[in-house]
Design goal:
mainly alpha; cytoplasmic vesicle; elongated; exocytosis; 26 helices; Exocyst complex component 3-like protein; about 0% strand; EXOC3/Sec6_C; SNARE binding
């Protein structure tokens, strides 16, 4: 199994030369040892050693035979390759020799090639001259062709004329192209001069074409042949333009003609000129309405012609219907802007807004069944921008505002004159006084709001806001007129004759206006009356109520001047006379609708109570005895009861009356023990917190039996119980001023008497 020393020495040089072989041999030996140890690990297995040796010997012989065969095949291939390389080297050497010989042959023939170049140039010149000779008859006949083309144009044989014109242009362009390629620019001017008639013919043909295009809408209805001919000629010229632009070597004069673009321009100019460059129309209502109606009719009619007829006369890529639709749309946009630069009245502004925002897109115009679905202006944008619409709406609102102000002013003047009529105001079916003012004002405002709602919600809202502002201003002017009427009445109570009746009519009118304001807006969510307008309505109602109460006060004052007096105390019919006056006014108040009627009664009752208390406190009567004090209390009870029952009979509940203060005051006067006054006064000021110290002092004076000590205690008690007016309290004593008691004059270091 081991290697001998000689084998190792023999293998050493080889191993140094082939280290991979040494590694492979070691691996093989290791594998063999591993295999042998696995097979012969038992002694009895050594019996089969001979068998294994023979098998491995046969195997090695087979491997060696295959190796020898492979090496032999490889050596034969190497031999064949070397032979082929040797043959290739010989062939390359032969080719190099042949190339060298060809090079020397070419060098010897260089002089002969120069002669061939001259022959080539002569040949090219001959070809050119032959071409010139061929076109000479055409060149000489150019002017004759010009005359013939002109005749054809005069006879409107446009297709034939254009064919000959193209032939002449082609001839000229070919000649110019050759001159351009040879750099003979100086000769081009001569050629252009010779063919100068082409420019005139082109212009003549173009003029006829544009005249035809300008009349296209009429021609396609009557005789579309001419229009179709014009389109065919334009398309021929477009193809020639495209071809020349693609070649990009030489561009003849007058190219590209761009006749298709000119076709669109002429068509657009025709549409614009026919409808939108008319003389300035009347900016006042009817003239503008007729103009817009004519535009609407003509545009729909012409678009129908384009859709049904013209589309069939032009190639599909012209998109003629879309072009015409866009032209009308853009022209209308500019035209409306021009119209809006005029000083239009409100009717004109409304017509513009209605036409642009409603009519234009409606089935009456661009949404006409005959135009759908091919015509679609939704992608073209609005006729009026949102900024222009808002600006126009504001102008319209200002015009309407001026008109509303004028109408309201006239209505106010008529109303003011009616107040001085020699007859009572008119009444409704229930007998309530009224005038036509609320109906006129609300109808005017409502009509303007309803008209605006036909356009846009934004315009409706603008008019609605304007209407409320104008109504508020109108109420202010109406109030001023009412004040003026009151001043004239103060100078002469006989003027106006039916002063009270018209004041009552004003209250009914004010109530009608207040009830009608919320119905101005169609949207229930937007019907809330603004605070400022409600305040104006309240001020108007208060002023009319104030004038009525002043009139009532003038009739009551002569009676109140008799309070208090000994005659009154002894039992006169003074309060009965007051009740008659009040009852007379109450009958007048019944001509006013609720709740204003109830308010008038409540204000009247408050006025009567305050005047009664004022007379009692300002012209105080000091009771000289208990009997006189009892007599005063009895009179107060009778008067207050009579007045209370009167107002209760008129529909004013006891809880709503201020006359209860008279009953409370009577209780203070009728109290038998003055020492208890402090407690009673505290209860009194709690119920009537607007009572002052002066009021209480006056009441104590009226009793006539209150000592200084009791007075001091009462006033101290009041100081200890300051009162705050509760919310909703109706003051009664705060409006009554009583004279301040004079302080007694005191000597220094002395006691007051």
């Amino acid at each position: 199994m081991g290697m001998s020393a000689e084998d190792e020495r023999a293998a050493s040089p080889r191993d140094e030369e082939w280290p991979e072989a040494e590694k492979a041999e070691k691996l093989a030996r290791g594998a063999a040892l591993k295999w042998a140890s696995g097979v012969f690990y038992r002694p009895e297995k050594l019996e089969g050693l001979g068998h294994y040796r023979r098998r491995e010997t046969q195997r090695n012989s087979s491997i060696q035979s295959r190796l020898k065969s492979t090496v032999q095949s490889y050596l034969e291939g190497v031999s064949t390759g070397l032979e082929q390389l040797r043959s290739a080297a010989q062939e390359v050497q032969s080719v190099c020799q042949d190339l060298g010989a060809a090079r020397w042959a070419l060098l010897d023939s260089a002089d002969h090639f120069q002669g061939l170049q001259q022959m080539r140039e002569l040949m090219e010149e001959h070809v050119q001259l032959a071409s010139v000779v061929q076109v000479l008859p055409q060149i000489f006949s150019v002017h004759e062709v010009f005359s013939h083309i002109l005749q054809l144009l005069h006879g409107q044989h446009l297709l034939e004329a254009h064919v000959e014109l193209m032939m002449v242009e082609q001839l000229r362009d070919d000649i110019l192209s050759q001159l351009h390629l040879r750099g003979l620019s100086s000769a081009q001017a001569t050629v252009l001069s010779y063919f100068s008639g082409l420019q005139e013919l082109n212009e003549s043909l173009a003029k006829q074409l544009w005249d035809i295009v300008g009349s296209s809408l009429q021609l396609v209805r009557e005789d579309p042949v001419l229009f179709v001919t014009a389109v065919r000629i334009i398309e021929r010229e477009e193809k020639i333009d495209d071809t020349l632009l693609l070649e990009a070597t030489f561009l003849p004069p007058g190219r590209p003609k761009g006749w298709r673009q000119k076709f669109y321009q002429v068509l657009q100019d025709t549409i614009t000129g026919a409808h939108f460059h008319a003389p300035r129309m009347d900016a006042e209502g009817p003239g503008l309405a007729r103009h817009l109606a004519a535009l609407q009719k003509d545009i729909v009619s012409e678009l129908c012609v384009v859709k049904d007829l013209m589309v069939q006369c032009v190639p599909a890529h012209y998109n003629i219907l879309s072009v015409c639709t866009a032209t009308y749309h853009q022209a209308l946009t500019s035209h409306l802007q021009e119209i809006l630069q005029e000083d239009l009245d409100k009717q004109g502004l409304f017509l513009i807004l209605e036409w642009a925002l409603r009519v234009y897109h409606s089935p009456e115009m661009m949404g006409h069944p005959d135009l759908l679905p091919e015509v679609d202006v939704s992608a073209l944008g609005p006729l009026m921008s949102s900024e222009l619409v808002d600006q126009t709406e504001r102008r319209y609102v200002m015009k309407v505002k001026a008109s509303v102000f004028e109408w309201m002013q006239r209505t106010l003047e008529v109303e003011f004159k009616e107040w001085f009529r020699e007859e009572e105001p008119e009444t409704d079916h229930q007998g309530f006084f009224q005038s036509a003012l609320p109906a006129i004002v609300m109808q005017m405002l409502n009509e303007n709001i309803q008209v605006a709602s036909l356009i846009t919600d934004s315009l409706q809202q603008k008019i609605y806001n304007m209407a409320l502002e104008e109504l508020e201003a109108f109420l202010g002017r109406l109030r001023e007129a009412l004040v003026q009427c009151g001043k004239e009445h103060q100078q002469d109570r006989a003027v106006p004759k039916y002063y009270i009746s018209y004041l009552l009519a004003v209250l009914n009118n004010n109530l009608a206006l207040s009830n009608s304001v919320s119905s101005l807006h169609s949207n229930t969510a937007c019907r809330e009356v603004p605070t400022s307008l409600q305040a104006a309505l309240d001020r108007m109602q208060k002023k009319a109520t104030q004038l009525l109460l002043e009139e009532l006060l003038l009739d009551l004052q002569p009676l109140c001047l008799q309070l208090p007096s000994r005659k009154w105390l002894s039992g006169s019919q003074l309060v009965g006379s007051m009740c008659e006056v009040i009852d007379k006014y109450a009958k007048d108040f019944s001509r006013v609708r609720k709740p204003v009627c109830t308010l008038l009664l409540a204000e009247t009752e408050l006025l009567v109570a305050s005047q009664y208390l004022r007379a009692l406190l300002q012209r105080k009567m000091v009771c000289k005895s208990r009997e006189e004090r009892g007599q005063l209390c009895q009179r107060l009870l009778q008067d207050a009861t009579q007045l209370r029952e009167l107002f209760r009979g008129l529909g004013l509940d006891r809880s709503q009356q201020s006359l209860e203060a008279v009953f409370a005051l009577r209780e203070l006067i009728s109290l038998k023990d003055p020492a208890l006054l402090s407690l009673e006064v505290v209860g009194f000021i709690t119920k009537y917190p607007d009572v002052s110290d002066e009021h209480i002092s006056t009441l104590l004076d009226i009793r006539g039996d209150v000592s200084k000590e009791v007075r001091h205690v009462v006033l101290e008690m009041m100081a200890q119980h300051p009162q705050v007016l509760p919310e909703g309290y109706r003051p009664i004593f705060s409006t009554i001023l009583v004279p301040v008691p004079e302080l007694p004059f005191c000597l220094r270091k002395g006691k007051c008497a």
